[in-house]
Specification:
Helix content is 48%, strand content 2%. Strand 1 and strand 2 form a beta hairpin. The radius of gyration is 21 Å and the shape is elongated. The two termini are 40 Å apart. About 10% of the residues have low confidence.
Amino acid sequence: MSERQHELFQQLLGLPSPAETRGDPWLDYVNLGLSESDVPFLMALMSDDDLIFADGDSKEVWVPLHCWRGLAQLRSVEVLVPLLELRELDQDDDWLSSDLVTIPAMIGKESLPILVDFLTNTEKNLYSRFSASEAISKLGNKIPEIKSECVKALCDLLEQFEQNDTELNGFLIWSLLDLEAGYCIETIRRAYKSDTVDFSICGDMEDVEIELGLRKERSAPRSYHWTFEEAVPHPDALGNDPASLPVRKGKKIGRNDPCPCGSGKKYKKCCLN
């Protein structure tokens, strides 16, 4: 380790954890002195198993996060592949999951082919692919000139709805809704008609049409109630005794409803995210 690398590592160790600065913007890593010449060293630290799996109460465990955030601010597209692989390795890291969907939009349009390659790779973990799907929608909303490319990538994969996992189809539709991709409606309808969409993610077809502004209100009662584990048939739809079926307690919170946490934001932009 060179003198510069040693100094940089000690500097990263001394930075506050995001848990200490929760709610605040990211640190300005470039202003701390990071530069393009530091990229290889930051990449190495970010993928260092001794740091990734360090004790949860240590300073070392936060070094990879500071590295990938610094690389994002340097707009280093090289960070994406190892970041996606880290998501594969650790499905429980909420900081990683959250950062992964925002970093590609910080880097720019060159992120898109990397995200699409990962999203369409059926060997990757399903929940890692969900993150890639959401990252694509955020990328398209941030960079209008590639929005149509982002929509096409998501819609092309949704066209394979019969081969896809039902949850994946649900999250693809979620991302298309965030991109306001109303012109993909026929593909979405065919996916729902084939019964290959998990209702617990975006609701049923009428919920989607309302979200896209294609209808003002429902024409029929929802045929499903939502639970945290699964969608269960609505008793009114099946003519069963309501007491005989498990149902979600309380009113379903819509994607565009005010978040119940009181933040003032829409549910889809706050706690649901």
